[in-house]
Design goal:
This protein has helices at residues 11-19, 26-36, 43-55, 68-79, 101-108, 129-141, 153-157, 161-174, 197-210, 228-245, 260-273, 291-304; strands at 57-60, 93-97, 114-118, 146-150, 184-188, 214-216, 250-252, 286-288. Helix content is 46%, strand content 10%. It has a single domain (11-304), classed as Alpha-Beta Barrel (TIM Barrel).
Length: 316
């Protein structure tokens, strides 16, 4: 697929482009995702995959009862997932609500672990644009390195593509700092609400054309969240976008990825669909709260031959 688009000037031009994308073969996508999910890797390759997956985790807490103490503990775990083993990599980021960004930032200073903040009336996205932009600016001012925004699914499903496009553009502008740098923007599609694979492909392209640095499956608050077939469609979209525009965009499946076995399925899919360029935390992330613990348990088993119980890792 080598679709291209001149700068969007109207809802009609954007609609023509998005509806001109090739339709997704649902049966084929499901079958390919299932087939890639059966790949098995062993020993040194598995050890590499586990460490790579750890380094790709956005360690997340997005609960109403989050406290500064919980965020500090999570940030310390992100920096040193296994305090007994200094060779264990740190995670990519800690993801929190905007009002806890400052706490996370203070704890993570100098570590290289990023602070991601959800914004734009997460998870529903039901707010006026000025409220969403204020939400974004507040998180950036507090020190967020990355912003995870949600699209207006109602506008998208109603076919108001330019509304969604312009909102993403405005949020990306709100990510800019006075010093000329900017927080990276991850655009959450909430694929569980998009109804069809064709809509997932269209939303992926819309977000990329509007300036997303990453496209993300889900908030983790809606079921289904991340799935292998949906992530496959998004990976195909970023691959084709680079072919058409020469620009790499990241992908972040989030929600429901809990085991090492699941994570490795996603890594195989990334490699087989996009190639090794995307096997890097700069271009692929896992949004997860419990995945890290299983990765640590499996890592210990590979190193020692013994499988530790759940009390060997901290509860998040």
């Amino acid at each position: 697929m080598t679709a291209t688009l001149s700068p969007a000037t109207s809802d009609a031009s954007l609609r023509r482009f998005l509806h001109g994308l090739p339709a997704v073969d649902k049966v084929g996508a499901d079958a390919r995702a299932a087939r890639l999910g059966t790949r098995s890797i062993k020993t040194t390759a598995k050890a590499y995959a586990i460490d790579l997956a750890i380094s790709m985790v956005d360690l997340t807490t997005l609960e109403g009862h989050d406290t500064p103490g919980k965020v500090r503990a999570l940030a310390n775990k992100a920096m040193r997932p296994d305090p007994s083993d200094p060779t264990c990599p740190a995670t990519a980021a800690v993801c929190v609500y905007g009002d806890l960004v400052e706490v996370a930032k203070q704890t993570l200073t100098g570590s290289g672990v990023q602070v991601a903040a959800v914004a734009t009336a997460f998870p529903s996205g039901r707010a006026r644009l000025d409220v969403k932009l204020a939400d974004t600016r507040d998180a950036v001012a507090a020190g967020a390195d990355e912003i995870d925004m949600v699209i207006d699914r109602g506008a998208f499903l109603a076919g108001h593509y330019m509304t969604v496009f312009e909102e993403i553009v405005a949020v990306r502008e709100a990510c800019e700092r006075p010093d000329g740098t900017a927080a990276h923007l991850k655009v959450i599609l909430e694929t569980g609400e998009l109804q069809t694979y064709d809509n997932v492909r269209r939303a992926s392209w819309l977000a990329m054309l509007a300036g997303a640095h990453f496209i993300k499956t889900s908030t983790g608050k809606i079921s289904p969240a991340a799935t292998l077939p949906v992530t496959l469609i998004m990976l195909e979209a970023v691959r084709d976008f680079r072919d058409a525009h020469g620009q790499m965009i990241g992908v972040k499946p989030a929600g429901g990825i809990r085991t090492t076995k699941d994570a490795i399925k996603y890594l195989v899919m990334v490699n087989e669909t996009c190639g090794p360029d995307w096997l890097d935390p700069s271009w692929f992330r896992f949004g997860a709260s419990t995945l890290l613990n299983d990765l640590l348990l499996q890592r210990t088993k590979l190193a020692t031959g013994r499988y530790g119980g759940p009390d060997y890792v901290t509860l998040d």
